[in-house]
Amino acid sequence: MRLLRLPAGAPESMRRDRTPDETPAGRVIEHGPEAATFNEVLTLVGAGQGGVVVGAQTRRYYARPDVAYVPFSDAPPLLWALHWRADAATSRVQAFGAAAAALVGHDRTQLPFPV
What CA–CA distance (Å, rounded) separates 51 from 23? Predict the structure, then answer.
């Protein structure tokens, strides 16, 4: 199966992470077409044009009869984080970030950047 590509406008670091050119063992990965949106990704998967690695929540929120979600556990987990523009860090945004961190039991002092 081919691995679908993220759009050319996506950050290069994200493209390398989500659609690498080779496996950790050095085996070349064949790539399929580029998809501009997530719905386009799912349409291409449903049409048999390739596959894509997604988080487990995708199965719940994007259930489709033409797409099979196959769980695997031999890869590092996908990491999620809240992001906002630096010039938009209002007290309300910071309070939301703090509440979200507390909800999931995350120690805010361990974040790579302040909330």
Answer: 15
